Amino acid sequence: MRVHLLSTAVAPLGSGLGGGVEHMIVTAARQLGELGYDARLIAPDGSVADVPNLRTLPGRLAPSAVGRDYDEPPAIDADGFLAAALRELETQLRPDDAILNFSYDWLPLFVSGLLPCPLGTLVSMGSLNRALDREIRHVARRRPERLAWLSAAQAASFGPQDSIRRIPPGLDLAGYRYNAHPGRSLCWLGRIAPEKGLDDVFVFAARTGQTVTVFGAMQDPAYWARLNRNHPGAPVHYGGFLHMPALAEAVRDCRALLMTPKWLEAFGIVGIEALACGTPVIAYRRGGIQEYVHDGETGWLAPADDLDGLCAAAERIERLDRAACRALVESRYTLAHYGAALADWLHALTAESMDPTGATA
Questions:
Q1: Helix or strand or coil: residue 283?
Q2: Would 359 be classed as within a structural domain?
Q3: 95 and 132 share a domain?
Q4: In the chain, what is the straight-line distance between the N-terminal and C-terminal CA atoms, in Å?
Q5: Distance CA 264, CA 195 (A)
Q6: Looking at the structure, do residues 263 and 128 belong to the same domain, yes or no?
Q7: What is the model's pLDDT at position 131?
Q8: Is 345 a member of any domain?
Q9: What kind and span of H or E run contains 310?
């Protein structure tokens, strides 16, 4: 079976600017290939990914939904990557194909009912835009099997639903070595952008005196420069944008990972990456983070935006069992779990595209 994977349209794969979606789509291509599917990944020009069938296309990148006004109309660009990708797919699709869309964008959702094969969307963010929300709710009502979610909290942000299909990401645990004896510093992982809440990390470090190393793509250099100017004494350092395995080696040596999102984090893959190394997570109780940060077991949760609670939680790091952090990922977030969930979804997508006579709907 041919499966076309449609990448995020906001950045090339490998740039880090696509967030956890970059990991999810590349891993999906590899896992589906190992399961016998003919997986074909379509991504913007400049993408780099170690997958067998990567097709890159020119076209303007799409603006991120993050930070835009909720009522802003969707951007539809005839010269954009998404339009180019959908045009190319139109010339190749067969009724027995399937498309898995990883782009958080209005256009693929809108055309999903107009194609000769099913298109499923792995929704990667919470509610951010009125038009996009409306289209997601429309698909959820008419063809709920065509949507998959990263977490229950994320799905709930779009309103009540009868049932949801959750497909959280999976990790190759061979690349994340467990460490029972970390160093003294803490870390923070993610795009350097305001919605990720780095402001609170600087305040946390200044109040507690604990060193925090920040790793991630420098999406907003002006924001980073402003934080350093506003908090000159805070022991926060930039460790660069690291790729695997260097990233895992750095994280495994940290006492804990801080997660400080200012938005509803749909999942937060960096959290399970830390747990896989045995590094517990101290986070705000917001969004999908709550599905793997179990208070007092794999980390500590503070009320959203409660800096006092975040600082207090750091005093309790030593109570946590690092082996329990690793065990949680082994039991729920492996490549095998991810691949099986994707295969099950594809089975549901192809089943719904057949009418009782066996003809495609």
A1: strand
A2: no
A3: yes
A4: 18
A5: 9
A6: no
A7: 94
A8: yes
A9: helix 307-314
Q: Give backbone dihedrals phi and psi of 285, rounded to 5 degrees, phi first.
A: -80, 85
**Distance, CA of 232 to CA of 216 (rounded, Å):** 20
- Integer CA distances (angstroms), 189 to 37, 133, 184, 241, 354, in order: 33, 28, 17, 9, 43
Within-domain flag for 256: yes
Please state whether 46 falls in left (phi above 0), alpha (psi between -120 and 50) or beta. Answer: left
Residues 116, 62: one domain?
Answer: yes
The Cα-based distances of 29 to 89, 105, 260, 337 in angstroms read 17, 20, 30, 14
Distance, CA of 168 to CA of 33 (rounded, Å): 19
The predicted-structure confidence for 176-230, as pLDDT tens digits, reads as follows 999 999 999 999 999 999 989 999 999 999 999 999 999 999 999 999 999 999 9
pLDDT of residue 68: 83
Is residue 132 domain-shared with residue 224, that is, in the same domain? no
The whole domain housing 104 covers 2-170+334-352
pLDDT in tens, 288-347: 999 999 999 999 999 999 999 999 999 999 999 999 999 999 999 999 999 999 999 999
- Residue that is written with structure tokens 């990991």 in the block: 23
Q: Please state the domain count of the chain.
A: 2
User: Helices H, strands E: what count in the chain?
Assistant: 12, 12
Instruction: List the structure tokens of 262.
Output: 């200012």
Helix residue spans in 14-169 (DSSP H): 20-34, 81-92, 106-111, 130-142, 152-156
47-50 long-range contacts, CB within 8 A, separation 24+: 47/7, 47/12, 47/13, 47/14, 48/12, 48/13, 48/14, 49/13, 49/14, 50/26
Pick from 268, 266, 245: nearest CA to 188:
268
How far apart are the C-alpha atoms of 317 and 267, rounded to whole Å?
A: 22
Shared-domain flag, residues 220 and 137: no
The token pair at 227 is 């934080």
